[in-house]
Specification:
There is one protein chain. By secondary structure, the protein is α+β, with helices and mostly antiparallel strands. The protein has one domain (3-71). The protein contains two helices and three strands. It has helices at residues 14-23, 56-74, and strands at 25-30, 37-41, 44-49. Strands 1-3-2 form a three-stranded mixed sheet, covered by helices on one side. The termini are far apart.
Length: 78
Amino acid sequence: MEEKFKGLIDEGNIDLWQDMNRFFEIELKESEEPGYLSSIDDREVFISVDMEDINPHSFTHELLHLFLKEKRSSSPGI
């Protein structure tokens, strides 16, 4: 993770971040618009980060999208 994104990780989301990196190839990029946004294509993920609002809670929200996708993939009946 690039230094400019380090503020996105805290004790509340470090485990989720590490787990999702095992399942997905995650690339963080600066958002061109306010807010956060995830784009998921199979196992390749782009998370756009609002550089004016480096916020671990917003980042965790995006990681939870990945978590749900992974759970649905591993349990097709869900």
